[in-house]
Every structure is written in C-alpha cells, then in structure tokens.
Design goal:
The protein is an alpha/beta fold and 519 residues long. The chain has 13 helices and 22 strands. The chain folds into 3 domains: 18-44 and 59-114, Alpha-Beta Plaits, CATH 3.30.70; 129-434, Peptidase S8/S53 domain (Rossmann fold, 3-Layer(aba) Sandwich), CATH 3.40.50.200; 445-515, Immunoglobulin-like. Residues 155-412 form the Peptidase S8/S53 domain. The active site is at residues 164, 210, 379.
C-alpha cells in the first residue's frame, strides 16, 4: 500500500508539473509575413508633412494596419493580441508551448520571438552651480548652455516624446510646473496599466519617479528661484510609460514598440528613451549575449533602425550602465543601433564614468556617439542631449536626423578622434550652432607621429593643468584612460607596446599621438 501510494503521489506530482508547464504562458512577438496593401494608413497630416520636408516617402508599408484576418484567426484559437505593431507587422501575445507549435505551422506567421530582459535604470540627485545670475547643473556648463540662451533657443515649437518607467509626481514638481501651466504636455499613455486614472498621481513601483527625473533633465526650470536643469524649457511633450519598474527584467518590449508607433503617428520627430535592454532574462535560454548587441538582433533594435531610417526620427538613447560589469561591459540595445544617438556618461574631467557602457569592438560604427556628465546613470545623460537636440531643431525645424547626429558628433570635444569609451566626447553648443549655420570653426586638434626610435614624447601644458588621456590599441578602441597633472609646462607620454595611438585632451587642444612601428 505504501508503495502504491508513493507511485500515485509521484504520478500526481509529475502530472501537476507537466500540466503547469504546458499551461504556463510567456509573452512573445508573433511576426506576420505580409499585409493587406488595400488598407489605408492612419497617420496625421503633421507626420506626412514631416516626411515631405525630410525627403522621406510619405506613404510607407510599415504604416499600414495589420491584416485583420490574421488577428481574427489567432483570436479564434485563443491567442489574444496585447500590442499590435504596424512597424514590425506583428502582435505580442501570451503563449504556451502548444500555441507556439501551432503558430510555427501557420503560413502567415514569419517568426515567433520571446520577450523578456533586464532593464537598466538609474537615478541621481542634481547639484547646482552658479552661472552668472542663473543657477545651473554642472552638465549645463559643460555643454555651454550660455550659447543657447544667447540665441534664444529653448525648444519652443519642438515636440519631444519620452518613453520611460513612470512620471509619478511630475505635476507637483516645481521645476516642471511650467509644463502644466502652459499645457505643454500634449498627451500621455500608460501601456503598463491602461486603466490607471491618474497618470501623474498614482504610484505603483519605486521606479515611477524615473521618468519625472528624466523630464527634469530635459526641461526642468524653477522660475522663482532662477535655476535651470534642462535645455528644452518650452518644448511640447508626449509621455509614455512602458515599463513597470518593479524588477530588473524585460517584459515590456512590446509596450516600447507601441509607444514608438503612437508617437510617430502623431508626428513626433524627437524621442528620448532612457531604457536599455541587456542581460538578465527570466528564462536564461532566451537571454541576450554581448555578441547580440550588434544593432540588428533584438526586436527593439529592428524597430529603432526603422525609426531612424524610414521615419526620420531622432532617437536619443542611454548607452547603458554595465561598464563595470566584467561579464558584459558594452552598450545595451537599442543603443547598439547604427543611426540611434547613444549617450555615455563622463565625470567632471571628461573621462568615462566607470559604470558607463562602452562600444563593442566588433561594431563597424562608433558607440556611444557622444557623452556628457552624469553622476549615477546614462539614463540622465541622454535627456540632457535630448534638450540639446531640441534647441538645434528649433533653430532649423527641417533639419534631418542624420544631420543632427553629424552635428552632435562634430561638436564633440574629441572630434575627429572618437573612441568606444565616450564616443566623440562632450558636445559644445557653440560648435553645434556654428555647424548648423554652416560657419567655419577653428580647429583645436593636431596629430603627432612618433617615430619608432622615440620612446616618449612631451605634450606642452600649463603647470598644474590636468589632461585626460585615452590609450588605444586601434584608432577607436580604448585600452585604458587616465588623468595626468602637469608638474612642469608639459606632460610626458611613454611608448607602450599595447598602445598604438593616444588621445590627449588639454585645456587648449586635442592631440592625437600615433606611435609608429615597423610592424
């Protein structure tokens, strides 16, 4: 009897776990093969006008709605769409193993792709410094806010989309009060909890403040106390909450996709997303690997590529905070996409912050694109640059996203000697405005070739001045970075077998040293 009971008990346990595994569902993308070309796209006249101004195709297949027959068929077999993506020609849905097998046998289903990953979110408290009679954060001085102020640029007339983890308390935040007093928030959507009644007043997780902090870095301004946190103080905004923020795992890729499509359909051309997807999937078999940060593997990378190439969107993304993680180190997706503007973080000297993710060596293009100061996260560096871009777009409303990216990179303090630690460095408002108005800027760079017989070289400097040095094994791949203080009126660089080129940033110039060898 005991033996029979044990067998029965084990059978029940095995059956229970088998059925539970069989019935358990996870979220997936279901990508279709085609669309009904007779359908009509639903995009605004503003969106069409944007495309005409940028020389883009006004009518795009990716704007067409999904084939209704496919969706009805899936609903009849108990597969219910969560998010419908026109761009990807896909829906997201919760599926079990049996349903996945069914889908793989359907002629109109191209791919079934799992959704789940780690989110990179960071927060920081802002410090203020005096700039004339206006108090600003250090990063505002670093990028040269005075040149935007003198030109009267503040993002007016520019619409910015922000995709983040929550905007709790934004209405009660004094530095954001102007947004609500002037009705500059044009629309909001909560893709995590669509039934939420109060977008700004209901808090569900500890990360629901994150989008509010991001907004401060884009547009924050306290008019009574006369201090400014962001550049785009007069811009309009659409806000989307796509991440629940209660754990560091992906699960909202489809929400991000839907938010992108929503904003594009409204004619939004500038989008900030301080969310990055890296490792840490709940199912390790579905995890990304560093090698997959290639700008084309992740679904979000595909969408980001479409946004910049086909929709003309300026997409500003935080590079990621895995720089200190020896098992990862590189940028997260969608910062890995060519055309997306990935933002790294520097310290006050202009060196890469330890946590700031670096560009993979296997990419044929440079990542991050540029960087700026942020104490505790690239997620607060990206919105600074978003405000920067808004000022440029106000100056020239018809400028293309490619021209914006080129201007940002060329205005960087390292240009043209960019590297995979901080990209082309910290952008300058003065240089950017000169570039956008096609004025010539005086070059402050030079190249020195050191012959094989020379073991060291002196770089002239002012006594007591600190230089930032990037030692590189290729023109763009950094081996190490360091700061050097001049004890005399120069610093000494010594030859190192691992170092082929060295970039030195002084107060007056950027020097690229090429260590010549016979190899």
């Amino acid at each position: 009897m005991i033996r029979i009971r044990l067998i029965l008990t084990n059978l029940i346990i095995i059956t229970f776990f088998s059925l539970n595994s069989y019935a358990q569902k996870s979220k997936y993308w279901i990508i279709f093969t085609d669309k009904n070309l007779s359908e009509k796209a639903e995009i605004s006249e503003k969106c069409k006008q944007n495309r005409r101004n940028l020389g883009l195709s006004e009518h795009q297949i990716s704007d067409l709605p999904l084939n209704k027959n496919y969706i009805v068929f899936l609903q009849n077999i108990d597969i219910q769409p969560i998010i419908k993506s026109k761009w990807l020609n896909a829906i997201s849905a919760n599926l079990n193993i049996e349903q996945i097998k069914q889908l793989q046998n359907l002629s109109f289903v191209k791919e079934v792709i799992p959704i789940e990953s780690k989110l990179v979110l960071s927060k920081t408290n802002l410090k203020h410094s005096n700039f004339d009679d206006l108090k600003v954060d250090f990063v505002m001085k670093q990028i040269g806010i005075e040149y935007f102020l003198e030109a009267g640029l503040n993002g007016k007339g520019v619409t910015i989309g922000v995709i983040d983890a929550g905007f709790y308390g934004a209405k009660e935040t004094q530095t954001l009060s102007h947004l609500f007093e002037k009705n500059l928030v044009l629309g909001t959507k909560d893709y995590v909890n669509p039934k939420k009644m109060d977008f700004f007043g209901e808090r569900e997780t500890s990360s629901d403040f994150h989008g509010t902090e991001v907004m401060n870095a884009i547009t924050g301004r306290h008019y009574k106390e006369n201090y400014q946190l962001g550049l785009a103080t007069h811009a309009n905004f659409y806000l989307a909450r796509t991440d629940s923020g209660n754990r560091e795992f992906r699960g909202e890729e489809d929400n991000w996709m839907a938010a992108m499509e929503w904003m594009d359909s409204l004619g939004v051309r500038l989008i900030n997303t301080s969310l990055g997807y890296a490792k840490g999937f709940s199912n390790p078999k579905e995890s990304y690997t560093p090698e997959q940060m290639d700008g084309k593997t992740s679904v979000i990378a595909r969408a980001a590529k479409m946004a910049v190439d086909e929709k003309g969107i300026v997409l500003v993304v935080s590079a990621g905070n895995e720089g200190d993680d020896n098992s990862w180190k590189i940028v997260s997706t969608p910062a890995d996409v060519d055309g997306v503007i990935a933002i790294g973080a520097t310290n006050e000297l202009g060196m890469k912050m330890g946590y700031s993710s670096i560009g993979p060596e296997f990419l044929t293009y440079l990542k991050p694109n540029i960087s700026c100061f942020s104490l505790f996260g690239t997620s607060l560096a990206a919105p600074v640059i978003t405000g920067f871009v808004a000022c440029l777009m106000q100056s020239n409303p018809n400028i293309s996203n490619k021209d914006i990216r080129n201007i940002l990179e060329k205005s960087g303090n390292l240009y043209p000697f960019g590297n995979n630690f901080i990209g082309f460095g910290v952008p300058s408002a003065r240089k950017a405005l000169n570039l956008i108005s096609k004025k010539e800027s005086e070059s402050q760079t030079r190249t020195i070739e050191v012959s094989e017989s020379e073991k060291q070289i002196e770089i002239p400097m002012t006594i007591g001045e600190i230089a930032v040095v990037f030692n590189k094994k290729t023109p763009s791949i950094v081996v190490s970075q360091e700061s050097m203080k001049a004890k005399y009126n120069f610093i000494v660089l010594k030859r190192n077998a691992q170092v082929k080129q060295t970039t030195v940033i002084t107060h007056d110039e950027v020097v690229e040293v090429i260590w010549k060898t016979s190899n």
